[in-house]
Write a structure and sequence with these properties.
One of its GO terms (biological process) is positive regulation of translation. It is found in: Cell membrane. Its EC number is 3.6.5.n1. This protein is of the alpha+beta class and 593 residues long. The chain is 25% helix and 34% strand. The protein has an 8-stranded antiparallel beta sheet. Strands 2-3-1-4-5-6 form a 6-stranded mixed beta sheet, with helices on both faces. β21 (369-373) and β22 form a beta hairpin. α12 (502-516) runs antiparallel to α14 (583-590). The longest helix has 16 residues, at 556-571. It binds guanosine-5'-triphosphate. Residues 13, 15-21, 53-55, 77, 128-129, 131-132, 159-161 line the site of guanosine-5'-triphosphate.
């Protein structure tokens, strides 16, 4: 293929600014997908993605425009998947930066734009949703010029919905974005920027050939995984898969190499020729590192083997989440799972419940702490119940994030207040324009994984946006709070919190449990303790519950029914320190508020 006629691009945008709609329109206008077959959001293939309107899995698709071939590479639209965004950008020479003309620049517009600049990509900026009465393109263009330094007159104006301006955008892609460079006979180096598991074909990877030529049947070496596999099939998507014999330099497509586990063909992997391997891998490979952890337990203990199987199957498709068995006195047998972030956690949980028909309890999310003991050891824990005894702890480190918030200036005060209550330290406050403020804070991850995002949205009527990146570990004054039921600690409710928040956590947990635990035949004390010291207490008063009291008269069948129902209810109870706790109480108590 003639390299001069090739363009590799991604569309980058803040969530909801219309990336998927624009991709759909581009596929349609270029004749790649027949308008009749056009199913909205062609590129988002997972049901869940379609429902939630978020892009998770990356795909690339080839389309023809004005005698040129454009490879459109989809990027995930959520901060949890930042690393995958940077991998997919490494497969491009340029990006279309899409900004909602009614909303203006948002946090991920900035973050994605910086990523594109770091990768030396050409940026074609365009404003979307011009058909909306609320669109204010002149103001938006000014903002793009002042914040991103892209001249306002170069910013294109489109409506992804109606298609207005989209042909001109494709022209601009062809005219402004450089063609890839590379020689067909160089040593092969191809970048994997996405892999998914197909039930019939095994792992299907999206690849971008950087140097040399990828051939069907070729024996390949996966440099970072240190494995060899044969290219069973290579091809392009347009939009369905079409097998080809070779993919030359600058081209993107898919690769099937008989791999059974996506963990062996991760994004960022470099593929080379086994017979003539490249010496150096392409830059930027990183093992995905879970940041947020929680326990997942089947509501019905009998479903434990099903949960194990479901996790194994899901992991084939998503090598970035981790799991290992754990047991809890309160919840029985389950798994400790690690995720890239909160949305990732929610997605995995929802897929488990939906695709595998499981009913799950998830414990409160936690982060990974590095505990320095007085004996000079460093232990990494992601479950509060593993915390060494307080007397042995020298110091605890916790992970931090650099958080960027973009907000209409009216909400600056309430957001500063939110960040401060979350132990944030301000790095920067800057007016991007008289109406828009950028705030940067360093905040402990643990304070963000609770309900930070919801708070952010509700305090600003949805107008503020958020982006974050890991900022390493640092020492904090942290303590473990235990919750005891009838003097017995309940592991599922243990929590590591900042010392200043321990009382509050303890009090809230006791109050909540008091509401949730039914009266027993005896008084049940509920206590919160910090290193052996009780910091909060509530009592569920005893009450004798006589289910037959209502049945005056001698209707035996009615009595039996009531007794049966009571027995049924008992089955769903867990017994902790002689206290019968309904499963429902755990679920509600673990819900974040
Ligand atoms: P993520 O996948 O979550 O990143 O979102 P996205 O950027 O792909 O946004 P999507 O294409 O799903 O669009 C978000 C919403 O904006 C949808 O309801 C679209 O119908 C709407 N939308 C997109 N483009 C336009 C447009 O040009 N005009 C109007 N009126 N609405 C649009």
């Amino acid at each position: 293929m003639d390299l001069d006629r090739l363009r590799n691009i991604s569309i980058i945008a803040h969530i909801d600014h219309g990336k998927t709609t624009l991709s759909d329109r581009v596929l349609e206008l270029s004749g790649t997908v027949d308008a009749r077959d056009m199913r909205a959001q062609y590129l988002d293939s997972m049901d869940l993605e379609r429902e939630r309107g978020i892009t998770i899995k990356l795909q690339s698709v080839r389309l023809d425009w004005r005698d040129h071939v454009i490879n459109l590479i989809d990027t995930p639209g959520h901060v949890d998947f930042g690393y995958e965004v940077s991998r997919s950008l490494a497969a491009c020479e340029g990006v279309v930066l899409l900004v909602d003309a009614a909303q203006g620049i948002e946090a991920q517009t900035l973050a994605n734009c910086y990523l594109a600049l770091e990768n030396d990509l050409e940026i074609v900026a365009c404003m979307n949703k011009l058909d909306l009465p609320a669109a204010d393109p002149d103001r938006c263009a000014e903002e793009i010029e002042s914040v991103l330094g892209i001249p306002a007159e170069e910013v294109l104006r489109i409506s992804a919905k109606t298609g207005d301006g989209v042909p001109e955008l494709l022209d601009a892609v062809v005219d402004r974005i450089p063609a890839p460079v590379g020689a067909a006979d160089d040593t092969l180096r191809a970048l994997i920027f996405d892999s998914h598991f197909d039930q019939y074909r095994g792992v299907v990877s999206s690849v971008r050939v950087m140097d040399g030529t990828l051939r069907s049947g070729q024996k390949l070496r996966f440099l970072q995984a240190g494995a060899s596999h044969q290219a069973e099939e290579i091809g392009i998507r347009s939009p369905g898969p079409i097998a080809v014999d070779t993919l030359g330099p600058g081209e993107t497509g898919y690769l099937i190499a008989g791999i059974k586990d996506v963990g062996e063909a991760r994004s960022g992997e470099t593929v080379t020729d086994a017979a003539r391997p490249a010496e150096e891998a392409l830059e930027g490979y990183r093992d995905p590192k879970p940041m947020v952890f929680c326990g997942m337990y089947p509501v019905d203990g009998d479903q434990f083997p099903d949960l194990r199987e479901a996790l194994e199957r899901l992991r084939l498709n998503d090598s970035s989440f981790t799991y290992e068995p754990e047991s809890s006195g309160a919840l029985g047998f389950g798994f400790r799972c690690g995720f890239l972030g909160l949305l990732h956690m929610e997605i995995v949980r929802e897929r488990l419940e939906r695709e595998f028909d499981l009913n799950l309890i998830a414990t409160a999310p936690s982060v990974a702490y590095r505990v320095h003991t007085k004996g000079g050891e460093v232990v990494e824990i992601d479950n509060p119940s593993e915390m060494p005894d307080g007397a042995e702890v020298e110091a605890i480190e916790e992970p931090f994030l650099n958080v960027t918030l973009l907000t209409p200036s009216d909400y600056t005060g309430t957001l500063m207040d939110l960040c401060q209550t979350r132990r944030g330290e301000m790095d920067k406050l800057e007016y991007l324009s008289p109406e828009r403020v950028e705030l940067r804070y360093k905040i402990p991850l643990a304070e963000v994984v609770t309900d930070f995002f919801d708070q952010l949205k509700s305090r600003t009527q949805g107008y503020a946006s958020l982006d974050y990146e890991p900022a390493g570990d640092d020492v904090s004054d942290l303590v473990k709070v235990d919750v005891l039921l009838n003097s017995q600690p309940v592991d599922a409710f243990s929590m590591i919190v900042h010392r200043t928040k321990a009382d509050d956590y303890g009090r809230r947990m006791c109050e909540k449990l008091k509401e949730l635990i039914p009266r027993q035949l005896f008084d049940v004390p509920i206590q919160a303790a910090m290193g052996g010291r009780i910091i909060a207490r509530q009592t569920v008063k005893a009450k004798r519950k006589d289910v037959l009291a209502k049945c005056y008269g001698g209707d035996i069948s009615r009595k039996r029914k009531l007794l049966d129902r009571q027995k049924e209810g008992k089955k769903k109870m867990k017994s902790i320190g002689r206290v019968e706790v309904p499963q429902e109480a755990f679920v509600s108590a673990l819900k974040l508020d």
